[in-house]
Task: inverse folding
């Protein structure tokens, strides 16, 4: 109910008397309905779920407080029927999700209604404790997969084999899915922040970057660890220590009220001081929730983002050297009034085996 009231407050700010929610995760966030198709129509007094035959019973179970408008021909036609009698004159739509084709159909079918694309109709950045607990479970699932990998990983394994070990363990221990395709970048492949796990075999003395996550109760986790199998070179140990120091500095320093740019600078300044600023090419982190990437954004470009208690985000500084490899260490945190609570518990070890 609080989420719905927050949307209605946003509607009042924008001067719209109805909101059409078509983005799937926003639909789930507001209504609890987990089906793959459906629209929400929200006014000051009504909350209507527009859906087809496949989901009638499911919606009754998952979103019993919502009225149903059932689709017999098209979603547009069902919406037109639902709008009749509601005195809707200005309807906010999600312009970053609604297709131009659908927008034009809606305009043609409701000529008396002004359709207004509105940014951030639904904000999922600040999590409630129910969401935090779901995320905590997803983080724990990934942590346990990392602990399991330690018992079997060895030189000679192929990147895709390592990815499968992580994914299988998560799926067998509570995950409904992986948060994203697992990244395993060994040796030079680790210089690509989003390397695809492929056929390359892990070799002794090389860095291996592994980035993975689990979905539990719809919520995602995201973790990265970098290790070396066997005896590492001094360059690797020095760089790994620098990345860890930068990450831990963020985790003990970040506070509500900081901008995303200021949080990013905590790690970036450490890299610049060490002469590696140009090797940190991405942002410090991103929000995680129902989506693996959502607000807030922590980046040198995020000076308008203000961090607030309840936000859950990653802290993932990294350094990348084409032809050699990369090092990234990533935790998830929830921001509290007094600072960051680190959710990730997976071991941070420069060398394994």
Result:
């Amino acid at each position: 109910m609080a989420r719905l009231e927050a949307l209605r407050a946003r509607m009042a700010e924008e001067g719209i008397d109805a909101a059409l929610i078509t983005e799937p995760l926003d639909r789930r966030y507001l209504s609890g309905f987990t089906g793959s198709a459906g629209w929400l129509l929200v006014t000051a007094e009504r909350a209507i779920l527009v859906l087809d035959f496949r989901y009638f019973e499911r919606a009754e179970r998952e979103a019993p407080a919502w009225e149903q408008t059932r689709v017999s021909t098209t979603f547009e036609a069902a919406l037109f029927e639902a709008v009749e009698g509601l005195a809707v004159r200005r309807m906010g739509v999600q312009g970053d999700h609604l297709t131009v084709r659908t927008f034009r159909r809606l305009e043609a079918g409701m000529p008396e209604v002004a359709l207004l694309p509105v940014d951030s109709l639904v904000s999922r950045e600040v999590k409630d404790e129910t969401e935090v607990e779901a995320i905590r479970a997803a983080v724990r699932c990934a942590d346990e997969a990392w602990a399991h990998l330690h018992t079997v990983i060895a030189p000679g394994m192929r990147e895709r084999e390592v990815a499968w070990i992580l994914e299988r363990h998560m799926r067998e221990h509570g995950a409904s899915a992986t948060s994203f395709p697992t990244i395993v970048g060994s040796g030079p492949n680790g210089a690509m922040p989003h390397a695809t796990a492929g056929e390359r075999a892990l070799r002794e003395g090389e860095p291996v970057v592994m980035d993975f996550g689990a979905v539990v109760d719809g919520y995602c986790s995201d973790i990265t660890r970098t290790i070396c199998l066997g005896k590492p070179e001094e360059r690797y140990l020095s760089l790994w220590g620098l990345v860890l120091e930068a990450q831990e500095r963020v985790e003990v320093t970040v506070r509500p009220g900081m901008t995303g740019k200021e949080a990013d600078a905590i790690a970036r300044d450490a890299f610049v001081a060490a002469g590696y600023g140009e090797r940190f090419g991405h942002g410090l982190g991103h929000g995680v929730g129902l989506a693996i990437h959502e607000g807030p954004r922590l980046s040198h470009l995020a000076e308008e983002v203000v961090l607030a208690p309840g936000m859950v985000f990653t802290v993932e500084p990294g350094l990348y050297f084409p032809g050699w490899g990369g090092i990234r260490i990533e935790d998830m945190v929830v921001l509290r009034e007094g600072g960051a609570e680190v959710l990730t518990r997976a071991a941070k070890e420069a060398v394994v085996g």
The chain has two domains: 2-117, 129-352. The first helix runs from residue 2 to 14. The first strand starts at residue 18 and ends at 21.
